[in-house]
Amino acid sequence: MRSTPARRHHLGLGLALLSFPIGMTQGAAQTVPAPRISAANVAESASSVPGDYHFGPGDRLRITVYGETSLTGEYAVTSGGLISFPLIGDVEAGNRTRGEIQATIHDRLAAGYLHDPRVAVEVVDFRNFYVLGEVNKPGEYPYRPNLSLEQAVATAGGFTYRASHKNILVRHNNEDSYHPVQNDRSSQLMLQPGDTVKVGERFF
Q1: Among 55, 73, 102, 161, fewest CB within 10 Å belongs to which?
Q2: CA angle, 120 then 60 then 197, to 5°
Q3: Considering the domain 39-125 in this protein, what is its CATH number?
Q4: In whole angstroms, what is the distance from residue 14 CA to residue 146 CA?
Q5: pTM (2 decimals)?
């Protein structure tokens, strides 16, 4: 049976329509680049940790050794201020900054394990803070960055009716004793991980 020009035209158009989506799908797949992780990405993420922040028990860190997936992971700071790291064993992390921890891991890995390792440290979870005394829900709470005294009290359910707004004490994580908060500066006071707030009782 002979094909007429009209029949050949419709047949060609049908084949073109069938092949069009396939070609578009292949082209789209080729233009989407695969995600890449670079040392710059790691450093930028880690920079969210304040440079002068001193780690302590209860902090949980993510340590990235660029190009070494077996070493990259999350590490908790123990009650003794240590983290247990593959190949090099215990690393002192208590009361040390991000830069100090990075330098220690770099130096120990470079001493016989890796050539010029690139190390980045960031915080996954901060240690908790505490609110005690005349608040509705005294206790231990997860810390979040840029936490003010007012926000900490609100997290603990707010002041009780017996609370004295002029008798608030704060003990920072690295201190042995409480110090009073000036009433006119209480709204500006920023807390650190591990801090303890104690709200006193007012005298009627």
Answers
A1: 161
A2: 125
A3: 3.30.1950.10
A4: 63
A5: 0.68
